[in-house]
Amino acid sequence: MNKDRNTVTHNARRRLLKTTLIAGSTYSILLDKWVKPVVNSVILPAHAQTSASTTASPATTANPTTTASPTTTATPPGITTAAPCIPDLTPTISINPSDIIGPTQITIILSINEITGCATDGSDITVLLSADPRLTIQSTSSSGFPFNLVSSGSIIRFDGSGVFPAGGSASIMVSANFVPVQATQGSTEFTVTIPFNGQGGETNTSNNSSTATLTYDSVV
User: Fold this and answer.
1) Which residue has the higher pLDDT, 111 or 81?
2) Closest of 165, 161, 163 to residue 115, by C-alpha
3) Does domain 89-217 have CATH number 2.60.40.1530?
4) What would the mean pLDDT of 115-132 be, rounded to a whole number?
5) 164 burial class (0-12, 13-18, 19+ CB within 10 angstroms)?
6) How far apart are CA 86 and CA 72, in angstroms?
7) Which phi-psi region, left, alpha or beta, contains residue 185 (left: φ > 0; alpha: ψ -120 to 50)?
8) Torsion of CA 110, 115, 118, 119, to 10 degrees
9) Strand 155-160 to strand 147-152: parallel, antiparallel, or no bridges (unpaired)?
10) Predicted confidence (pLDDT) per residue in 129-139, tens digit
């Protein structure tokens, strides 16, 4: 009885050992023939193919707000900016006749000229003529610019309104009677002046007056 049992056990062990050896040999053979596969490409799913992979940019710190400087226009080389056109008015005076004997009708001509080729700015222009108690004004007229007689006391004043043209000329004619004092002879000066600085926009006042002389003799 015991002998049969031992025989069965012995046979079972032999079968187990044999099975183990066969399995080990098979594993060794398969292991020698197995090679790690090479992946040349990977096919992605449709949704993965259209999804772009992005890397988040590092956070940046906003620069402080700055105020833009005013835009300036540079003058091209070789080009100079034209200076403003400033008018210059200058008067002259003449007397006809300038040498008289006894009471005489005379004509005083006041000429006003713009000499820089710049029109005035439209402000009023005043012209003054020195008076003489022996002179009696009879009439006045103007041409080239509308000057009007304002006063004829100790100073004879004319005012003109409007734009005096660039390079323009105007004249004021004063018709008067000059009566020398009896038994006297001599001369007297008449002066025309543009008195106020800045009239018409001018700045040069060094040429704003002119003088003419009347010579007289009371003896006829």
Assistant:
1) 111
2) 165
3) yes
4) 96
5) buried
6) 26
7) beta
8) 10
9) antiparallel
10) 999 999 999 99
Task: Please give the Cα distance from 150 to 24 (Å, whole number).
Answer: 140
Does the pLDDT at position 30 exceed 50? Answer: no
Residues belonging to the chain: 220
What Å distances lie between residue 80 and 70, 72, 77, 115, 164, CA to CA?
22, 16, 8, 23, 28
What is the torsion angle, in degrees rounded to the nearest 10, for the CA atoms of residue 126, residue 130, residue 132 and residue 136?
-30
3-state secondary structure 77-88: CCCCCCCCCCCC
pTM over 0.85: no
Gap between the Cα atoms of 158 and 110, Å rounded:
11
Over the stretch 194-208, which tens digit does the pLDDT of each residue have? 997 788 999 999 999
Consecutive H or E run containing 121: none
pLDDT (tens digit per residue) in 46-95: 554 554 444 445 555 555 555 555 565 665 666 666 788 999 999 999 99
Token pair recorded at residue 84: 């403003």
